[in-house]
Design goal:
The chain is built from 14 helices and 15 strands. The chain has 467 residues and is α/β, with parallel strands linked by helices. It is globular. Bound molecules: 4'-deoxy-4'-aminopyridoxal-5'-phosphate (PMP). Belongs to the class-III pyridoxal-phosphate-dependent aminotransferase family.
Length: 467
């Protein structure tokens, strides 16, 4: 139905320019174009599908970069944002507040893990991570412990691309042109079931990774550590890797023992992606600070959120007067209206429940269909985020040589056949091989999952045969 209505919207015809040719920009002026020389020009979207100006249809199997939570062309959400824009699109967030901002804050805090009762809104995941770490730094300085400057991060991990957020990311090869970094980071291995080396990841994972974290702390001196940052489910850097049972309880106990603050980066795994609104909830993680992004506005406006504890904010109020951080678009109503419209849409249409139900189906179908294929080493994930690692040899888990660019080749092939997925490679950092990342809009149906899995399986088989 969604497809039929998309065709109606555009009259089923490719968009054309004045000369009657389909619109294309092969030599445009856009600075950053990653994969293709000749990018398709998207004319519109509908549900889980995108359409280009040549009339081709794409199943958006990764919701962009796991962003388009409520699907494309969502008129209910767009209409709500439009209404707010007609009222007021921008106010200075250090002078004013608005109804949409206040409502979004109170609704999110009501859903959030215990104690997170204060929210700020910014424009991107990287900004929220930066603000979160600045919040924690300021807190330690105000507490009279300015030496607590180091942050423990996990390898692999990704927390953003601005320089502070990049500093905190456990992806060494992303940093190679940009040193020196802004923050001292200390690293500990991130749980990744396929390459943990453990015979029984579920049984021994929590102990194993907790021991490694404890060793890192002892080596560095716990009194020099400000925070521990982690994605509850690791996103792009480890292909949707969930923690082993009990992991976050152990992490929390260890950090608590040394007064280290915990920061949950739910930019990718939050907002219903795992089948719960907050991924931390799934793993009994009650962080001191939490950040959201991407799905929070479904791509209808740039938006991210920082959630903190009242008592921490109060310490700052009594000390310096408050958190010393502001940006032009802080709580801009054009952005928070998108967040509120998406949240309302979630509630009205049971989006998180859909993600939980269809997510289980996706996880099951991916395992059933892909795992028997040659070269598919592992499938992991939870809810509507999943990762597939391709390997040259399944018995030894030997990755393909990086120079063969296996996942890039596969993704271009899938793209040509109208399935858009995301990839990642950890070869340079030695953490994993070729990873395909799956994360469709949270409104996806079982039938659309069937189409996704079938296209992916066919693509892998055809591509690998040629390889
Ligand atoms: N943290 C995580 C876990 C992410 O996945 C991302 C984006 N991929 C970011 C932070 C950065 O968000 P943004 O690209 O919106 O700055």
């Amino acid at each position: 139905n969604r497809t039929a209505s998309a065709a109606r919207v555009r009259g089923g015809r490719p968009m054309q320019n004045d000369a009657g040719h389909p619109v294309r920009y092969p030599e445009g002026n856009v600075l950053l174009r990653h994969l293709a020389r000749d990018f398709p020009v998207v004319s519109h979207g509908e549900g889980v599908y995108l359409f280009d100006t040549q009339g081709k249809r794409y199943l958006d199997g990764s919701a962009g970069a796991l962003v388009a939570s409520v699907g494309h062309g969502n008129r209910e959400v767009a209409g709500r944002i439009h209404e707010q824009l007609l009222r007021v699109g921008y106010v200075n967030g250090t002078h004013f507040t608005t109804e949409v901002t206040e409502q979004l804050a109170s609704r999110l805090c009501a859903l959030a893990p215990e104690g997170l009762t204060r929210a700020a809104f910014l424009g991107s995941g990287s900004e929220a991570v930066e603000a979160a770490i600045k919040f924690i730094r300021q807190l330690w300085v105000e507490r009279g412990e300015p030496q607590r400057a180091k942050v423990i991060t996990r390898v692999p991990s990704y927390h953003g691309n601005t320089l502070y957020a990049l500093s905190l990311s456990g992806r060494p090869h992303y940093k190679k042109f940009f040193g020196p970094m802004l923050s001292e980071v200390v690293t500990t291995p991130a749980p990744y079931p396929y390459r943990s080396g453990l015979e029984d990841y579920a049984r021994d994972g929590a102990d194993h990774y907790a021991r490694l974290l404890e060793e890192t702390l002892q080596r560095e001196g716990p009194g020099t550590i400000a925070a521990f940052i982690a994605e509850p489910v690791i996103g792009s850097s480890a292909g949707a890797s969930p923690p082993p049972p009990g992991y976050f309880a152990r992490v929390q106990e260890i950090c608590g023992r040394y007064g280290i603050l915990t920061l949950a980066d739910e930019v990718m795994c939050g907002c219903g992606r795992t089948g719960r609104f907050f991924a931390s909830e799934l793993y009994d993680f009650t962080p001191d600070v939490l950040v959201l992004g991407k799905g929070i506005s479904g791509g209808y406006a740039p938006l991210s959120a920082l959630l903190v504890r009242q008592e921490h904010l109060e310490q700052m109020r009594l000390g310096s007067g408050g958190f010393m951080h502001a940006q032009t678009y802080l709580q801009a109503p054009a952005m928070t209206a998108a967040g509120l419209a998406v949240l309302d849409y979630y509630e009205r249409h049971g989006v998180v429940a859909n993600a939980a139900r269809v997510g289980q189906y996706l996880q099951r179908r991916l395992r059933e269909v892909l795992l028997p294929l040659p070269f598919v080493g592992s499938v992991q994930g939870v809810g509507l985020m999943a990762g597939v690692e391709l390997v040259e040899d399944k018995a030894s888990k030997k990755p393909f040589e990086r120079s063969r660019k296996v996942v890039e080749g596969l993704l271009s092939e899938l793209f040509a056949h109208g399935l858009v997925l995301w990839s990642n490679t950890g070869h340079a950092d030695g953490t994993n091989g070729d990873l395909v990342m799956i994360g469709p809009p949270l409104i996806i149906t079982e039938a659309e999952v069937d189409e996704l899995v079938e296209k992916l399986a066919r693509g892998i088989t055809a591509f690998m045969e040629r390889l």
